[in-house]
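Researcher: Batch entry, complex prediction.
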Amino acid sequence: MDDERAKSVVLPLIEKATNSTAPDVDPRLLKAIKSTVRYSDSDLRLAAQTLMYLMKRDHSQVRYLALLIIDELFMRSKLFRNLVVENLDQLLSLSVGFRRNHPLPAPASVASALRSKAIELLEKWNESFGIHYRQLRLGYDYLKNTLRFQFPNLQANAARVQQERREREMRTKEILLKKFESFRTKFSSIKEEIQSNIDEIDECLEILRKKDEDMPLASTDDEDMEEFRNSELRQIRLDSLREGEKVQESSENKVVFDALREFYKVLVTKHLAAVQEWISVLIRVEVADLRFRDSALKDLIDIRNLIQSTKRKCEESGCDLPKIANAEEEEDIWEDGTVEAFEKGKSGPSCSENKDGPAASTSNNMMGAGCSNNSSNGNERRNSQNNGSKSNPLRSKLLTEAPMLNWGSFLDTWGSNRDVLANQRGLDLEGHWGRVDYDAVIPADKIAELNVRASVYEEEPVEIQPCRAPLRKGELCQRRDLKICPFHGLIIPRDDEGKPINENSVTEETAAGKQPEESTPDVENDLVDQLLKQAVKNFRERDREEVKKRELDKQALKRAKLAKVREHNEAVLRDAAIASTSRSSHIGEDVETGNGSRSCAKSKKQTLASMLKKKETSKDRLAQRLLNSRARDATIRQLTVAEEANYREAFPNQW
Amino acid sequence: MWKETREREFGNIRPNLFSSRISKSRVSSIRLSNYKEIVSSHRGSVNSLQVDLTEGRYLLAGASDATVAVYDIERATDYDGGGLIAKHKSLFVVNKQHEHGHKYAISSAIWYPIDTGLFVTGSYDHHINVWDTNTTHVVMDFKMPGKVYRAAMSSIARSHMLIAAGTEDVQVRLCDIASGAFAHTLSGHRDGVMSLEWSTSSEYVLKSSSTAQSSSAKARAPQKKLANGNALKPHAVCRISSQVKTAKQRSHPGMLSSHDRATGHYGVVTGLKVTEDGMYLLSAGSDSRLRLWDVESGCNTLVNFETARLQSSKAIQMAVSQDSSLAFVPCMTTAKAFDIWSGQTKCTFRGHYENVNCCWYDALNQELYTGGNDRQILVWSPSKSISDEVDEWRKEQAATVDQDNWSD
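Model: C-alpha cells for the complex:
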C-alpha cells in the first residue's frame, strides 16, 4: 500500500526529470523529488532503485540526468549513500564506462560529458564522504591509480593554494617572531644608542644657540615694535626675524654643523627608520608576552616622538641640513615628473593654447603650473584660468569661448605657417647630420594639407524608449526599438501597467484613420469621443469575428488532414495485408516510422530519441531491411535452439 | 547477545556453544570493512592469501608481479580520518629486486603451518622457494618441471614437512623441507595440476585436481588418485604413508562420464577446499559449478549450489568458515558466501573492480580477506560491537560527520 503510493509520486517525478534533453535537471522537479524523498525512507529506497535502473538505460542523456539526481540525493541522505555505495562499481561502470565490454551509449557528446561529470562527482563524494565509505575510496583509488583516469583535483588544488598561503603566513610569522626576539635582546642597547644620539644633537644645538646669544641680535626686537601695524607686515617681520635668528654657517662653527649634520643623518636614516620598523613588527607580531610587547611599543612610540621632535628642532635650527631627509621625496618628485609628462599628452589642447599665446604663459606662472600639473582636472584649470583672468581679462574671455579639441598630431603645427625643410628622407630632419638643402622646402599650405585635422563623427546618444507593452508574464516588454516593436507594434507612451496613455490618438491613427485632432476646440471634444468609441468597438468586433473564423478554418483543415492520413494508413495497411506476409511487416513499420518522423518534424520538439537519431543513409536503410530485428531474432532463436539441442545430446547426464 | 551472555554465566549454554553462536551471528553480518584497510603493496593481481595458522596475525599475500608481502592484521601501522580507519601496511615486501626473488607471478604463498618463521612460495618461474620470514632470505629452493600452480602444506602434519606442489606437469611432487629433496612423485593426472589440498583430518591425505586437456573435445572429471586401491572414487584422494603406495586407477575416458555420473566437473577444476573438520571437499570448476564431496565415501553430496559465474582461466582459492556452514567463493568480480548445506547464496560481497582470485577466512576475528586482479586486498568484517560503535561515534564527532544533510 505504502509502496503503491510512493510509486505514484517519486517514480513519475524521476522519470519526468530524466526524460529531457536539457543539460540540467529541472530545478523544480529536483526540488519536488528531494522534498518527497526526504520524509520517507521507502520513497528514498524506491528512488535509489529507480535511479539505478535509469542508469542502465541505453541513453547517455538519461544516465547523465539520473547521475545528477543521484548526486543531489547522495550529498544529502545517509541512507541513500548506503544504498548507492553498495552498487558503486556498477554505478561507476555505467557512468564512467570503464569496462571495455560496456561502453557508454550514444550520443557521444553527452557520453563524454557524463564520464567527466561522473569522475568529478566521484572525486567530490570521496572528498566529503570517503572516510565513511570504503567503497568510495576503493572506487576512487581504482579509477585513479589502476585505470589512471584524470581527476579534476578541484579540492586538492584549492587545498594546495590554501596550504601555500598558510605556509607563507607561517613564515612571515616566524620571521616576525625572530625579529621580535632579536629586538627584545637589543632593545635596551638601541634605546641607549638613540638616546645618546639625540643627546648629542641637543648638545650641538645648544652650542650653536650659545654662539647665537653672543651675537647682538636681540636688540632689534624691541627697537621698532610699534612700527608693525598690520598683521601681515608683522608676520613678515617675524619671519625675517626668525630667519635672522637662524645661525649662519661660518668657518668657526663649521665643525659643529658638520657633526650636527652627521647626527641628523644617522637619526633620520637609521634610527627613525628602525624605530618605525620595530613598531610595525611589534604591532604585527603575536607573542605570549603581551606585557613586554605593550611596554616596548609604548617606549618605541615615545622614542619616535622624541626623534621627530629632535628632527624638527634640527630643521628649525636652520642649519643647512643634508638632503637625506627627503631622499624618498626626491623619488616622488621624479615620479610626479613622469606623470606630468604623461598627462601632457592627454591635455594637449590646453597646453597648445598656452603656447598659442606666449605672452600669457610667460606672464603668469600660475597658469603654466596649473596647466602642467592639474591640466587633467577641468575644475582646477578653471581656477587657474580665474587666477589668470585678473591679469588678462581679454584672454580669459577668449578662453571661455575657445572650443575644446581632442589631441592630435595636427596640434604640432597649430597656427604656424612656416615652410618646412625636407631632405631625401622626407620630413625627418631631427637625426639628419648632413648638409641641409635650404631650397628643398615644403610649402606651408602643403604641410597644412598633410596635417588636416581628422575628427570622428560621434552620434548623439538617443534614449530609445522600451516598448513596455504588457507581457503574459506580468512584466513589461523591455525591447527597445526605434519606432515599431516587432511583437507589439507601434511604440507608444504607456503607463506603469503597460496601458497606452493616450489610447485615443493611437486608435484614431490606426483604426479610423482620422486625423489626430489636437487643435479641435473643446466644444467638439465630446462628440469626437463618442465617435471614436463607436469606431473602436466596431473595429474590435470585426477583429473578433475574424479570429473565430480563422480558428474554425484551422480546425477544419486539421480534421481534413487527419482524415487524409488515416485514409492513407488504411490504404497502406490494406496493401500490406494483400502483399506477401514476410514483407508486409516491413511496410507497416516503414509507414509507422514515416508517420512518426513526420509528427516529430511537425512538433519540432527535441526528444531523447531524436538525440540518438542519426542521419539516415541508403546504407542504413538497406541494413535495416536486412538486419531487421525480427529476422535477426528468428535466426538467433533458431541457432540457440540448435545449440541447445546439441548440448543436450552431448551432455545428457548433466543436471 | 546480552541474554546469551547471561545464559552462559548461568551455565545454561556451554562456552564453546556460546562462542560458536556469537561467531555465527557475526559471520552472517560480514560486510566491507570501513575501519580496517590493507594497503596493498602489490602492483599485480593478488593470487594467494593466507593468515598464519599459529598466531592468526600475519597475512601472507602473493601477487602476480612476483611480490610477496606480509601484513600484520592485528596492529595497524597508521590511522587515517581521525583514527577512524586503521591502515595495515606491509611488514615487508619481497619483490623481483630481491636477490632470490621470483621472476614471474607467484601463484601461491603459504605459511609453514607450525610457526611463522618460514613461508613457502610457488611461482610461474618453475620454482618453489622456502623463505625465512625474519631475514627474508631463501632457505630452500625446489626446481619444478613447470609452472607451479599451487603449493600446499598439511595443517595438521606432525610427522612430515612436505610441500605438495601442483604444476604444469602431470605429476604432483612432494617436496621435503627437512631433506631438501622430492620425497615423492604422485602420478595420476593426465594434465597439469591446478589445485591441491591436504586433508584436514588425516595428515597423509592429499587431494588434487587437474586441468582438463583443452585439446580434447570432451571435458573430464577431476583426476583421481587413490592409495587404497579400492573402489573407484570420484574425487582425488591420495594417501601417502611412510611406505607410500601410489596406485593409479584410471577408467577409460569414454566410460568416465557414465561411471561417475553427475559427479565430476565439465572442464577445469579451479579450486579445492576441505572443510575444517576434513569431512567434506568443496570443488569449483570452470563450468561455473560448485560441488561438495563427502571425503570418506567419495560421493557427491549433490548439494545444488546456486549458479554463480566462476573465473575459469585461473585457479581460485576458496574459503570455508570454521563451523563449515559457509563457503566463500570468488565469483568473477564478487565473492559470494554460500550455505554449504543448502547451496544458497547467503550474501554477495561487492567491492572489487576486477576478478577476485582468492579468499581467506580468518576464524579468529570472523573476517574475510579477498584479493583480486585490481591489486587490492579487501577486508570484510562483521559490524562492530556496541562498545566499538560508541568509540566510533566519538571519533566521528571529531571527524566529519556522516549525517543527513537536507538543505531544502
